[in-house]
Amino acid sequence: MAQGRSEKGEKAARYQALLEQGVNTGETKREEETEAGGGRGQQRSQGKVRLAASKAKGRHVKANCALPAGENIFRETAAAFVLLKHEMDERCLFCLSELSDSDNNNHKDNGQTTTTTTTTTTKKIKCPDCIKQTWYCSTDCASADAPRHQIECRVVRDLPGITAAAGADYALFRLLLAILVREYQNRDDSFVSGSAQPFPPPTHPDFVFELLSHRKTADPKWLASVQACAEDFANHLPAELALPISEIVALACRINSNSHGIIDPTGNTNQSVGCGMFPAVAMLNHSCDPNCSFVSSTHGRMIVRTLRPIDAGEELCVSYVDLCTPRDERRGKLLETKHFWCTCSRCSPANITISTVDAQLDAVLCAACKSPSAFHSPTLEYKCTICDAQISEQEHQAITNLAESAHNDAYDLFKARHPDSAILAYEQFVTKYKPVLHPRHHLFINAHATMASCAVRLSDFVSAVGYGKYVLDGMADYVPANWPELADFWFRQAEMLEIVGGAVRERVVETRVVVENILSSASSTTTTTTNANDFDPGNRDAVSKAVLDLALEAYEKCHRMRVVAYGNNDSKCLETQLQISRLKN
Q: Where is this region: Disordered (predicted)?
């Protein structure tokens, strides 16, 4: 018994040390280097958080002291990370920069954007032995990753066939392979790492092997495909990476339950471009109303920051799922992938009323009342909020299935790169289901977000602004203040407004269209109060200035949110500051 307690204590101490390593690099590297070897900087950052444990919550992280919004809690470099399959030939496997044929490669790093001029290469570099599965943006990155990649290369070459034959996920097994390589490197004393290693150093892979696998609750079909793939995969592993099939399956389960997506660190999209194992980040529990967020950075780094002020003793939580999806969908996703049933404050039935967002995200309107305020919601037992008429779960699901089918048909056209046909299909979807679904239904938010992207592709920026406004109105109800994704949507909205303002000035678009579609409805998403009657469509300068003022206001709102979500020195904040200064001048 005493030995068991001792082992638990030693394990807790190691995880606390892992957490503190991330805390001590929570300030920027420049601050640590300029303050007498990091002494003052570490004193500021040490003691921010502590590791706690309970039967109800398991291992979790609490604030040691009061923390302001926008505080760097800690940063972690993944024990291992990989790119998703469709991103393999689009990004550098080492630094995650977008690939370019240019001599100048832009690297966004630790809150800064630096331009590295590479004279030893004139275009992106691919590994000749991997059959277009491994690319780098420069010889520097290729050289830095060479010692690691040389070990995995022979297996990577055959990995598409191995995973396809078993119907297993390619990224899952490539990440599994990357972990095995890291584990071998850490036990091989003769291994010499490449230059330009990330800061802080990657988390030791031993922490990955200690994560819970949840194998017993894994989906049987998924487990069967992983088992079949593991048998073939094991035969391709070199002796130094050999692992019993049962342990390969267990590691795959650990990855499935504990990996984190890596969002595009360049900020050009809000899409996942890769996935990695971040054992320190994994110690933060989930909440659908999080007080922290993690931000992807270059070289497989993750930074955890506070979104709002946090009291001493308060638990630090992040979100594992899309917050703009209905409660039952979020809970189902968490149960399937993370193996727990969410009981956070937002999901608790006691906190859901007619006016709360989770009563609206998947609500259908009452056919009898014909009012946007009269609806049936799964979170309210399918009773109409006005007349108390009740529909069955099956009736609600039938309506939802038909709506999802129409929405997905439109999205398929978008994925097939037919933006004009996609917009038409989405408009038909909105027209048909506007009398059926609640105005804040998540399918409407998703539809307008995709329509905005389609309109941009078609250079219809006036429409893009209108679609974007709908998304911003909806998202603001469902995500925390300073949510990174919401800030990025504001930046795109500002860009579209700026383009429209310039187009008005250059007589590319009609002022009447801009006044009616943008200026007359601007007050709902900005502090500027405008009225269509305030503008003479013939006065192009006045209309152009009004739209550019809206763009400036959107950039400023984005910047305030990004300062909290990303930090003052992050490349995204520097980008918005540059746009604000340019428009003001």
A: 1-53
In angstroms, the CA 132 to CA 87 distance is 11
Of 2.40.50.140, 3.40.50.720, 1.25.40.10, 3.40.630.30, the CATH number of 356-584 is 1.25.40.10
Residues 6 or more apart whose CB falls under 8 angstroms from that of 499 comprise 461
How far from chain centre, in Å, is Cα 145? 25
Tens of pLDDT along 85-134? 989 998 999 999 888 754 444 443 433 333 333 333 336 899 999 888 99
Query: Distance between CA atoms of 392 and 400, rounded to whole angstroms?
Result: 12
> End-to-end CA distance of the chain, in Å?
71
Rg (CA), the chain: 25
CB within 8 Å of 209: residues ≥ 6 apart? 183, 251, 254
Number of Cβ within a 10 Å radius of residue 119:
7
Instruction: With CA atoms as reference, report the closest residue to 116 among 135, 133, 93, 136.
Output: 136
What's the CATH code, domain 5-74+265-337? Answer: 2.170.270.10
Closest by CA position to 97, among listed 269, 303, 261, 299: 299
Model-level pTM? 0.80
